[in-house]
Design goal:
heterodimer; A: 506 residues; mainly alpha; two-stranded antiparallel sheet; B: 1023 residues; mainly beta; 5-stranded mixed sheet; 49% strand
Chain lengths: 506, 1023
């Protein structure tokens, strides 16, 4: 036996033990890529920008979260009785740092920034691409980063300004930046985007030059009007008129300097998926794009369900002013958002944005039901519908920059000039409410534009920022609509999770 | 152990020729049976005070000539209690051997070897396979409940094929696995919980390695304790075929507490709607039509339900859903075994069919297992063997609710399943008949080993072990049949495939050497290499044209989803153990293992786990012996390190995520930083993917102090242990600043402490030939505490419960794991004034609502407002202690055994608290209840101590009555045992009477699958 042991066992043992001892126990991931294997080819660059865009229609961002954050605090929307506590805090303007909805959108915006940073940091280094494509993709990265920071600064004010990719946990602690620095970065990013992006719109859901210019116009207008109205946090702006001029300059490029986007004449057509997704000329300059064939919420949108009442499947006339127009089945929703009487009664009775874009009655099984603004099933906006929905999956894009928004930006930047009046009156004319009273003062004219924006862009996430930048949160929401503001009037509290985990935040 | 038996037998055979034949002798015959009433070969029969002896043959028979002086025979067998039988005038004897629980010569299987029980230094508990309850069980896990001190077994319900949660000395990990390691015949299989591949009847013994000294040999997988399962092997000198069967009928143990009277149900629903502020037409039962699909459904009025509406007949429907859904399920279990062996070959072959019907219709579980165990002595020094197990399981159906209103019929007037709205997915008969839900698994496990006896003191053993298997789950929800179907664009079909492969090579030396009479040593040293690969893929289809093909052709779906993944990891290990015994009184054990794992970060690939144990057999000291009190007295102490590597592979690496975005005509795929993981409790994606090169194992430092005592020649044995387990470097998902674009990163950080006492007791009160009575029991008290979690003081865990819109379970520093978090309450508000004074507003302050307490505010003091600041720790689901009592009486051919199992303390969060009988006692202006709130359909229930109920219970777990027939009455049959076994017979508890108080580790009653009361008729036949 001893011989056997020496002859077979010992060598075998030595062999196996060497194998065990020398195996490095290195780990190779399966089914995943990482920094070692990515950002190498032109296709990687294209995938990188697609990934950066794909944050937009996520549930926590433009498929639901953005509307919760920006619409509930205003006179536009409130929420159903059993909604989460975060909704109630927003609706009642008493947000706290533990608000789950604010935490959610904060997270999604910074995820978007991380993805955009990865594009900006890596794509310029990828070989084997044409300069045009490399610039285009990098430019779109700059556009997205600017969009996220513009949303962040308007919601929270001073926030961490992250412009580099994170490779190690040691990079995580970072202090807040002053609002001024954040705007400097946003403007620089959008100017870079404006110069790098050269192609016409590649597809729905992708940004081109008018998107970058339109957003830049909105940024300048926000700065200018905030300073002019002495809105909190914007003391640093030296001369509002200079920024009004910049806003006008960039808005004009969109209003007059391109032919891809224009006003859609008939209001229901603006929100007709078949039209705005396919037409050569559309009002949707930039959307978070979705399609009902997607595999999950975020690829498709359930946003319509947030608005549609839950009672029963609904059929409405395509053009509610023409009862004999085509009937469309729009299904039923969750009735999560409830239209407030504030916005509902603010419209003139003949305003088509009320008569055509707010649904006040529907039919089911041949029976007509009226929706009551004081009940739980209230009139609701028809901006977000998809008659061809599959179950809960809809193709309703979330508009981020709409032509009429930039046209009104232009009007506000111009002030009561002929150009300014022409711009606002185009909007009013389409809505069927006649021209704005001529000869208004600068301030009165601009207030009229703000009111026009409230009607035109209702439920699209514009109102809160318009009130903030005109320093009228108290004036409008408290004095006019009887709300009580406890906290977060001009800037929401930064989420507690960030405060707890980022040691440099105070 | 086998060697020991063999040597004893040979020695005895050698003695046989020396038996003196006495002129006055007489001839006696007999048959020896083991505790399972199976013939026991190799038992030694000695005539007391003589040298006359024999050994029972392969059929357990013995024949011997007794000298005239012989008055009594002694029957002995290793591991069994010695039987003393007076001879009297009888000439034919039946000897029923009993397991000797405290036998000091018992051999205990520990990792990489076995030791005599008397030589144990660590905390190791043993359970013989024969001590498992005879009740239908798909796996052995749930049968361990109440059997072993220090081991807590909880089952979350009685679903067919369900496993159990096993915790040894408490839970000690936050995010890693809390399950013990299961080792079967020397092969570490993985986490305990559902050991379905092993037929419980094939189990010879189960050893539980509880302390660091015994578990450290399993290193980075030992921190949760180790369960060592040893399967039955063939024994030399016997050849037998046995057939076991168990036929079971089950009953509902808890009568569902649901609405029995449709009028009461409807009255309550209307009252809830009105109190909830519904407009008149939204009150449900008022006699109107409401739209459903393309038609309308009529909702009767209460007068109509009562038959008091002059214009309508009495409502004709009163559906008994309980009767339609629950049944008296019939379950079957058959095992056929052949085992035996010669000097050179030992074999055991067995096959099992297990069929369990669920309490719920169309729900069941089938299992087929087979096992081959073969050992061959190749030469005097070389032995080779193999063990092969095949297992197949199939589960069908699902749990169904019975709480649906009796007002509604099963079918509508057109013969379709009746629904009350387009989103009414609650018709259980529709679900039972429409949904496809089957899961099948196949497993193959095998090993091959060679043992070399190199010389008298040195052995080497090498083995190759492999296991592989796959699982397939088929699901189909037809059009608009479920919320899942709706969420998946109408209809949902899927096929989920899983497969695994695991390969292990073990090599170790064993040295047994004595140096002189005083020094004994045993050394084990070896190394192993294990590779594991788990693969998963899933095919999903949404939005099918029709339901004809179910999930048979997923490519025809409107939308197809695919996912697949693979995990692979390797573990390389060196291990060793040294036992040293001085003068058979002082024992020292040193154990260590070094594990290298691919799962660990690049900076921490190798982990080292040492431990040491000391034991003093005080009972061997003359001054103790003089007392004449103890037959055994041993004091033990151990300290050491064990680990837990319970993380998934790749967590140390940076990984990118992917996502799709619609660009006009197609979805394009993108990649980049941020790997989307599972959704969190709020339904949003948790993003990880940031690497951590330093990630490593969790380390548990354990101290164990124990004493083993035996009295009256081991007829009474007590084993008691005190332990402290401190786990550090907890694998924890650290929440990182969301502004980084990531939510979480795996890190090592945090501490948990478990300390406790466990006591096991056994007493053979009566031990006579015809009459035995034994009593055993255990007591376990464990105290668990989260000591630190890095930067967080509290993390929420578990599901977000929609009804209270928060997570209710937490890990909170300074509190036990799973502590409940919510509001405190003080009964029910009686007046509006009282409600407003309590700090409540609006509807919440109305009489009949729940009086939540204002205990804090933003600065920690009550601020007159009940809001989220008033939430605090309100309960602890961990029991104060658990205990069990077993007793076994045997009289002649009859036996009767009983097990009681109890859990004391521990809160249950009872989401089912408001049962129908309690709603009947609800607050109304006429019935100012302080206990139950008013009906309110839109109440925003808050997570509060209103839901908490004491979960203490004492359960009559099992009573078995058996009869053993083993004369030669039936030809070819060596023995026959028939028995009647009742399981889960009665539960003493103050808990919600509609439910079982045992609800699972986290203590949440969400209406689990009912645990049946089972009555079984079993038979064991040996041929």
């Amino acid at each position: 036996m001893k011989k056997f042991a020496y002859r077979y066992i010992v060598p075998a043992l030595l062999g196996v033990s060497t194998l065990v001892g020398c195996s490095k126990l290195d780990e190779k991931p399966y089914g995943m890529i990482n920094s070692q294997t990515y950002y190498k080819t032109a296709d990687d660059a294209r995938a990188a920008i697609i990934y950066a865009y794909s944050i937009l229609p996520e549930v926590g961002y433009y498929s639901r979260g953005y509307y919760i954050i920006t619409e509930l605090p205003t006179e536009n929307l409130t929420q159903k009785g059993d909604a989460g506590v975060g909704n109630f805090e927003l609706d009642e303007l008493r947000t706290t740092s533990t608000n789950p909805d604010l935490d959610n959108i904060w997270t999604y915006m910074y995820r978007g920034i991380a993805r955009a940073n990865a594009v900006i940091a890596n794509v310029p280094k990828i070989p084997g691409m044409t300069d045009a494509e490399r610039n285009q993709i990098t430019g779109e990265g700059y556009f997205l980063r600017a969009l996220h920071f513009f949303n962040l600064v308007r919601m929270f004010g001073e926030v961490p300004l992250r412009t580099t990719t994170i490779d190690d946990a040691s990079q995580i602690p970072i202090a807040k930046s002053p609002i001024k620095d954040i705007y400097t970065q946003i403007i620089s990013d959008l100017q870079a985007a404006d110069s790098l992006i050269t192609q016409p719109r590649i597809s729905e859901g992708r940004a081109n030059q008018p998107a970058a210019e339109g957003l830049l116009a909105k940024v300048y207008l926000h700065l200018a009007s905030s300073k002019a109205a002495a809105s909190p946090g914007y003391d640093f702006v030296a001369n509002p008129d200079e920024f009004y001029a910049q806003a006008k300059l960039y808005a004009e490029k969109v209003v007059a300097g391109q032919s891809e986007f224009a006003l859609t004449p008939a209001l229901p057509d603006i929100f007709n998926i078949d039209i705005y997704k396919k037409a050569a000329v559309t009002e949707h300059i930039f959307d978070a794009a979705v399609d009902r064939s997607g595999d999950r919420e975020g690829s498709f949108s359930k946003l319509p369900n947030m608005f549609l009442p839950a009672d029963r499947p609904m059929t409405i006339a395509y053009n509610q002013l023409k009862p004999d127009s085509a009937k469309i089945d729009i299904g039923q929703g969750w009735g999560h958002f409830r239209t407030e009487s504030g916005v509902y009664f603010s419209y003139a009775d003949n305003d088509r944005r009320k008569t055509q874009l707010i649904v006040s009655s529907y039919t089911n099984n041949g029976q007509t039901y009226q929706l009551d603004i004081s009940s739980s099933s209230r009139p609701f906006t028809r901006k977000f519908i998809d008659p061809a929905r599959i179950g809960d999956a809809t193709s309703a894009n979330s508009p981020i920059i709409r032509y009429s928004d930039i046209l009104l930006t232009y009007a506000e930047a111009c002030g009561p000039t002929a150009d300014g009046y022409a711009a606002i009156n185009k909007i009013r004319g389409r809505a069927g409410i006649g021209d704005l009273q001529p000869g208004l003062s600068v301030a009165t004219f601009r207030n009229a534009v703000i009111q026009e924006r409230a009607w035109e862009l209702a439920f699209e996430g514009s109102r809160l920022f318009d009130l903030r930048r005109t320093n009228t949160m108290e004036k409008v929401l408290v004095q006019q609509y009887g709300k009580v503001i406890t906290s977060g009037a001009y800037f929401f509290p930064i989420p507690q999770r960030e405060l707890d985990t980022n040691p440099l935040m105070k | 152990m086998k060697n020991f038996i063999a040597r004893c037998s040979i020695a005895l055979f050698l003695c046989l020729p020396t038996i003196i034949v006495n002129a006055q002798q007489r001839k006696i015959t007999g048959k020896v049976f083991d505790d399972q009433s199976k013939p026991l070969p190799g038992a030694t029969v000695v005539v007391k005070e003589t040298k006359t002896a024999t050994v029972s043959d392969g059929d357990g028979r013995f024949v011997m000539d007794v000298p005239g002086a012989g008055k009594t025979i002694l029957v002995t067998y290793v591991g069994m209690q010695t039987k003393e039988i007076p001879l009297g005038t009888q000439n034919d004897f039946t000897v029923n051997m009993q397991l000797a629980p405290g036998s000091l010569n018992d051999v205990v299987v520990v990792g990489y070897g076995a030791v005599k029980k008397s030589d144990l230094t660590g905390a190791v508990a043993t359970l013989k396979g024969g001590d498992l309850n005879r009740t239908p069980a798909a796996s052995v896990d749930q049968l361990l409940q109440g059997k072993i001190a220090g081991v807590q077994v909880t089952t979350g319900g009685g679903a067919p094929g369900a496993g159990a949660t096993i915790r040894i000395r408490g839970a000690s990990s936050l995010n890693g696995s809390k399950d013990p390691l299961v080792v079967v015949d020397g092969y570490p299989w993985g986490d305990a919980g559902n050991l379905k591949q092993i037929n419980p009847e094939d189990i010879e013994s189960i050893e539980v390695l509880k302390d660091a000294s015994s578990a450290a040999i399993y290193g980075s997988r030992g921190a949760n304790g180790v369960i060592v399962v040893t399967t039955r092997k063939g024994k030399q000198g016997q050849g037998r075929i046995s057939f076991n069967t168990l036929q079971t009928v089950s009953f509902l143990a808890n009568k569902p507490d649901i609405w029995r009277d449709p009028v009461e149900d409807a009255t309550f629903a209307n009252e809830a709607a009105i109190n909830g502020g519904a407009i008149a037409t939204d009150v449900p039962y008022i006699g109107i039509y409401r739209p459903v699909g393309t038609g309308m459904v009529y909702f009767p009025s209460i007068a109509e339900l009562r038959g008091l509406d002059p214009n309508k007949p009495q409502w004709p429907v009163n559906t008994d859903w309980v009767d339609l859904i629950y049944r008296h399920p019939y379950s079957q279990n058959y095992t056929l075994t052949a085992d035996g062996g010669s000097e050179k070959t030992k074999y055991a072959i067995s096959g099992n069919y297990y069929n369990e019907q669920g309490m719920v219709i169309k729900n069941g579980y089938d299992k087929y297992t087979s096992r081959l165990n073969l050992e061959q002595k190749l030469t005097n020094a070389v032995t080779a063997g193999t063990n092969v197990i095949l297992a197949y399981t199939k589960a069908t159906g699902q749990q169904l609710g019975v709480g649906r209103s009796r007002i509604w019929p099963v079918y509508d007037s057109t013969g379709n399943y009746f629904r009350t709205s387009n989103t009414d997915f609650g018709n259980p008969i529709a679900l039972a008949n429409q949904l496809l839900n089957t899961a099948k698994t196949t497993d193959f496990l095998g090993n091959l080993y060679v043992n070399f006896r190199i010389n008298s003191w040195l052995q080497f053993r090498t083995s190759i072990n492999a296991k592989s298997g796959n699982s397939v789950q088929d699901l189909y929800d037809p059009k608009n049949s479920t919320q899942r179907a709706l969420d998946n664009k109408g209809s949902y079909g899927s096929i989920a495939n899983g497969s695994y492969f695991d390969l292990l090579n073990e090599n170790y030396f064993t040295i047994n050497k004595d140096f002189g009479k005083l020094h004994r040593t045993t050394l084990v040293a070896g190394f192993s290499y294990q590779k594991t690969e788990n693969r998963f893929s899933s095919l999903t289809g949404q939005n099918f044209v029709n339901d004809v093909m179910q999930n048979e052709n997923l490519a025809t779906a409107g939308t197809m989803l695919i996912s697949n993944s693979l995990q692979r990891f390797n573990l390389a290990s060196w291990y060793g153990r040294g036992n040293y015994t001085f003068n058979d009184k002082y024992l020292l054990t040193l154990t260590a293992r070094a594990d290298g794992s691919t799962k660990f970060g690049a900076n921490n690939k190798w982990a080292f786990f040492p431990s040491a144990a000391l034991a003093w057999k005080a009972g061997e000291e003359p001054f103790i012996k003089q007392l004449g009190l103890f037959s055994e007295l041993k004091v033990r102490g151990s300290y050491g390190l064990t680990g837990n590597q319970g993380i998934s592979p790749y967590q140390t690496l940076d990984r990118y995520g992917s996502n799709k975005y619609f660009t006009g005509s197609v979805f394009e795929t993108g990649f980049g930083p941020g790997l989307a993981g599972a959704n969190d409790e709020q339904g949003r994606t948790i993003v990880g993917g940031l690497g951590n090169n330093s990630l490593k194992w969790e380390t548990t430092r354990s101290l164990d102090l124990g004493v083993d005592m035996g009295f009256l020649d081991q007829r009474i044995t007590i084993s008691a242990d005190y332990y402290i387990k401190r786990t550090s470097d907890l694998l924890r998902l650290k929440t990182i600043a969301p502004s980084a674009g990531y939510d979480q990163q795996w890190i090592n950080d945090g501490k948990i402490e478990n300390l406790g006492i466990e006591i096991g007791l056994n007493a053979n009160v009566i031990n006579q030939a015809d009459f035995t009575w034994s009593v055993g029991g255990m007591f376990t008290k464990n105290t668990n505490k989260v000591v630190a979690m890095g930067e967080s003081n509290q993390v929420f865990i578990g599901s977000l419960y929609e009804s209270v819109r928060q997570q209710i379970s937490t890990y909170t520093v300074g509190q036990p794991m799973f502590s409940f978090y919510g509001y405190k309450t003080a009964g029910i508000i009686q007046t509006l004034d009282e409600g407003i004074k309590a700090g409540l507003t609006g509807v919440d302050a109305q009489p009949g609502e729940i009086k939540y307490l204002d205990i804090a505010g933003p600065d920690g003091k009550p601020d007159g407002i009940v809001d989220s600041y008033d939430r605090t720790i309100i309960g602890n689901p961990n029991p104060d202690f658990i205990y069990s009592l077993n007793t076994n009486v045997r009289y002649k051919q009859f036996d009767l055994s009983m097990q009681l199992y109890g859990v004391q303390g521990g809160d249950v969060w009872d989401f089912q608290k408001m049962t129908a009988s309690r709603w009947l006692q609800r607050w109304t202006p006429d019935n100012p209840s302080m206990e139950y709130p008013r009906a309110n359909g839109t109440r925003g229930w808050r997570a509060s101590d209103l839901y908490l109920t004491d979960g203490s219970f004492l359960r009559v777990q099992n009573i078995t009555f058996g009869y053993n027939l083993h004369t030669g009455a039936v030809k070819f049959v060596k023995s026959l045992r028939v028995y009647l076994s009742g399981n889960n017979l009665y539960t003493f508890t103050g808990f919600n009477k509609g439910f079982d108080p045992e609800v699972g580790e986290s203590g949440i009653n969400n209406g689990a699958y009912p645990r049946p009361r089972a009555v079984s008729l079993g038979a064991n036949v040996v041929f």
